[in-house]
Design goal:
It contains 18 helices and two strands. By secondary structure, it is mostly helical. It has a single domain, classed as Farnesyl Diphosphate Synthase (Orthogonal Bundle), CATH 1.10.600.10. Helix 3 crosses helix 6. The chain is globular.
């Protein structure tokens, strides 16, 4: 991966009026994450910056979900309306603004990014046999697996229509490649499912493909539509990739979070499904033979009792696997932060830096 902390940067200040040029050979910004953690993380700065554009994206989503086949907008609308922060399309919107883009291509492309993400959610719930999505009934629980898969395919197809309409070969290359890599990640996850021998490198390969690749693509196309130099495209790609890895690691930690349980949020879904995530991998590697027998029984054979989740949390605590997983996420968040070092100080950059903290400092 490109080391974003030492990339040179040349641009005209007039090309990006919202930011101030810092010059060439700008080093990555080093920030004390422990100090930053004292601040309450929030997405407010980001959502405020792109509020109008996000409204336009939501309008485009509704328009593009239309189909004479009634089940398609019903099912697609169910999952789109089920919640979520529109984080991935917001990355495209704010990245394009940071790069000084003044047109409207970013709205359709942000819609494209959201459709790719939504399609993967539909397929994920079928593969995982999930009945819930963000606390609501999943689409497959209501309409069945076949309909969910087919509507997911419809959304993928709509996303490619949007790419073609944009007309940029570079955009088409970036987003189509992301779509294929995401599918590869799904298959890789299927191959490692319920396998306690899965190691950290395999886990990272899966989450890089499944989650981080779309983060990276969503950011990179912001620089592409603004016709920024290759070094900026690579920097935003590196930012998105490392942010996505950190985001997914924290997501996997949250499934075992006592704080989340205190907030009334469901935990232990990954455990019940036998998913092999980083907290499990570290606890398994550091555990005794007896502890590894427990993990094999509960995750490989799915032989679980009501007390097993509590025991799993106890073993993770003993082996410090949750805290160390968070430290891994902080490592990738620091790389993401450095990737922004070549960009001028501006509200958009500050919002992206705040997003890093939001992703890392969610209650765990």
């Amino acid at each position: 991966m490109l080391d974003p902390g030492v990339m040179a940067f040349v641009c005209s200040a007039s090309a990006r009026p919202s930011c101030h040029n810092l010059g060439n050979n700008t080093l990555g910004i080093v920030v004390n994450l422990d100090e930053e953690r004292k601040k309450q993380p929030s997405l407010d700065a980001l959502t405020d910056l792109v509020a109008d554009d996000l409204k336009a994206v939501n309008v485009e989503i509704i328009k593009r979900m239309h189909s004479p086949v009634a089940m398609i907008p019903q099912l697609a609308g169910h999952i789109v309306a089920a919640g979520g922060k529109r984080l991935r399309p917001m990355l495209t919107l704010v990245a394009s603004r940071m790069c000084g883009y003044g047109g409207d291509r970013h709205v359709a492309l942000a819609t494209c990014v959201e459709f790719i993400h939504t399609a993967t959610l539909l397929h994920d719930d079928v593969v995982d046999e999930s009945d819930l999505r963000r606390g609501n009934q999943s689409a497959n629980a209501i309409w069945g697996n076949q309909a969910s898969v087919l509507v997911g395919d419809f959304l993928f197809s709509r996303s490619f229509e949007l790419m073609v309409e944009d007309g940029s070969i570079d955009v088409l290359r970036i987003l189509s490649n992301a779509s294929s890599v995401i599918a590869e990640g799904e298959v890789m996850q299927l191959m490692t499912a319920n396998d306690t021998e899965t190691g950290e490198p395999q886990y990272l390969e899966v989450i890089t493909a499944k989650t981080a690749k779309l983060f990276a693509a969503a950011c990179e196309i912001g620089a592409v539509v603004a016709d920024r130099p290759q070094v900026e495209q690579e920097a935003l790609k590196a930012f998105g990739m490392n942010l996505g890895i950190a985001f997914q690691i924290i997501d996997d930690v949250l499934d075992y979070s006592a704080v989340q349980a205190e907030l009334g949020k469901s935990i232990g879904d990954d455990f019940r499904e036998g998913k092999i995530t980083l907290p499990v991998i570290l606890a398994f590697r550091r555990g005794t033979d007896e502890e590894r027998t427990f993990w094999r029984k509960t995750l490989e054979d799915l032989e679980q009792t009501d007390d097993d989740l509590a025991h799993a949390l106890e073993l993770m605590s003993q082996n410090n696997s949750l805290n160390d997983s968070v430290d891994r996420a902080r490592h990738y968040s620091a790389i993401a932060r450095d990737a922004l070092g070549i960009f001028d100080d501006c509200p958009e950059k500050s919002a992206l830096l705040g997003l890093i903290e939001f992703c890392i400092d969610r209650p765990y």
